[in-house]
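FW: tagging you since you asked about this chain on Friday. Here's the raw sequence from the shared folder, copied in full. Didn't touch anything.
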Amino acid sequence: MIAGCFAAASTRSASGLCYDEPKHLATGLCVSEHAAFVARDGTPLSVLWALPFRADERAVAREWNPEHVRAELNVWPTGVAFLDHVGRREALLRARLPTVAAFALLLLWVVYAGVKVWGSSGAFAASFLVASSPALLSHAGLVSPDLLASLAAFAFCWAAYRFQREGGGVAFALVAVTGALAIASKLTCLAIVVAATFAWLIPSDRNLRRVAWGFVALALAVVLADLIYRLAGSSLIEPITASRTLARTKFDVFFLGDLRDPGREFYAVLFASKMTPLFLAALVASAIHVVVKRSQASRLVEGWVGFGLPACALIGAMSVTDYPQGFRFLLPAVPLLAFAIAPTIQALIESRRRWVTGVVALAFAAQCADTLRAHPHHLAYWNEFVGGMDDGSWIAVDSNCDWGQAQDALESYATDHGVEHVFALSSQVAAPLDARHQALPALGAALARGESLSSSVIAVSVTFARIATHATNDFEPLHAFVHELTRIPPHAAPGHAIHVWHFTPEVEALAREHLGKYLQR
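HL: got it, structure written out here
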């Protein structure tokens, strides 16, 4: 647990400004200073990210017009302007502190719940999977609601488990409150809350009275979630309507090496590709464990009913939405599945066969090595089954690989290699603070002026590099240049998310051929 907290804090410090962070920060400031909700697909719980700032620092937000911030895409530049006003880097690190604290609380909750349900070795297995998960660590240090949703969803499932097994007014109230927080933190958690409530109809020893009260708690959770939105001048209906509108928007995304409508398998493939080999192996082993030991599996079944099925419901619900975006939408499923499969790992840990415990120890060591190899660039993590961090982006790009987090790594690379100019085409929501950075089209002008570019590099986001291979034509010379450039092996990949080419004669020839056309347009 302690190691996981340190890893989250390190990720917080190492990541550059990610694309949605300004949006969530601006939303939180508007909730804090105006009691106004300005991001239709955000959460009123964004107010947490305003807490690390003093009243005099938040004062600039009091001058904002929430309707203006809400209009079109103004919420992003508004958040960037606030960061620049306070001091972008230092302000960003402070804004990320509540998420790091939420990750620490998630780990603490997993340990506590694990000890209560599985015992010490089961608690160790569950907390180890959570603390060493690149998927969770990737968002544990960002201004993003996905980690908050993961915490709230786990808290809800734990509260529902306790209530169905023990009953009691306190447990009932905890179910309603945590359910409301889960729904308010991320609307997709509604699938988890509903599935977790219905799942308790499955066990043969179900208590129908408690199940009925569980449905009452579900209804109360929805009402409380709506109240949370109304306190910020909105309602639960508005973000649901906005989400449905987005889901109906048909657009092609890069998936499995092509630019297309990804179909229903998008999230399932994404989930399997982002999980570590140990996590995937444990999932399979747990399914086999339940079947083989079904006569003795009441505890295993309860774990899957209370935690595993709600996680699967989220993955299934996202798969049918026709809204293919990022792995972050599945993040709340990770700690739930980790908890559900913990008893299988526990049985192996407690095995009397030394070779079994030796294999488990090696698997744990391999998981640590995998996570350390990715650290602190967990957003770009892919497991070795699909090519690892260097080649796994053929599965999908966008926030699944480059969300802007590698900008700091690119700057460090430029400094370490004495680079004077960086001509970049990368995912960034704000202008880089480093004066060496210029947009890629500026390279054409530099060539036309005859400037010396021997100390220059070209930096292209993995996202744009992948998409350019399917979006090039004679009228898009910039895409054509990137398409041809990607045929040349890059010299480096800072953060595993940005490819860098030094200005060799071969690269210069491509730039003159394609970017010359760009200047003539």
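FW: The chain is about 60% helix and 5% strand.
HL: agreed, and The chain has a mean pLDDT of 90.
FW: great, closing this out.
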